[in-house]
Design a protein that fits this description.
Length: 277
Amino acid sequence: MRCSRALSLLLGLWLTSARLEAQIFSLSEQQEIELGREASKKVESDMPMLGDGDITGYVNRLGQKLVRNSHRSNLRYSFNVVNSPEINAFALPGGFIYVNRGLLEAADNESEVAGVLGHEISHVVARHSADQMKKAGIANLILGGLGAALGGRGGAVAGITKVGAELGTNAAFMKFSRDDERQADELGARNVYDAGYNPEGMVTFFEKLEHIRKSEPSKLETFFSTHPSPSERVANVSHEIRAFPRKGDLKTDDPDFHTVKSRLSRLPKPPTPKQRR
């Protein structure tokens, strides 16, 4: 009798889990956007944002140029800058993209920043971040006892909202598969090229990261916990770029980028992780 009850309980849990998984993995685009919006609120609450309109405006303008040449240009993307010295960037579902101040300071020209943004936009295009958050969300919802709530009308949306809020800041540490990263690099290089930027900027930035990895590893702690090695990415992107038709007017740099770099150098230093706690 006890064995029968146990089997019935396990079967019930399995059915609830399967039903929940089906709901989450059938997210509509609007639900994906809502998931990202809730996560972005948490990110901007927990992380030190750079409150400089000129710098954020520059990153947003550059990002929007790339968005117009992406395969999900229908989304309303937003681009913001985190006041952190670490070299990193990350994307949330639905088009919410963040770049660390340290990344802007490390770049030498606009095409390098464009390459990073193109990569992050491509994670959104391919729904990589949405998939990662959904997978984590399924586990959180089941463990948190929200399966029953999701069974009701409107429950799936309520669950998505809760998951987005819970996972917000952790999005900066999401680790995509090598195939996801490779796809984002390939799509990103093409996005940069189609927008009129020199995709070699992706290559030179990855090469720079390899150098920084040896000289200032603390600046790349998060990056290397979530990305493949730069040398591997240099080889992959270089191979991809060789197949692009030749263009003579690809943009590598812009005076606005150096205005931003100069402005960053005059700002107070960003808070250290200990100061943020």
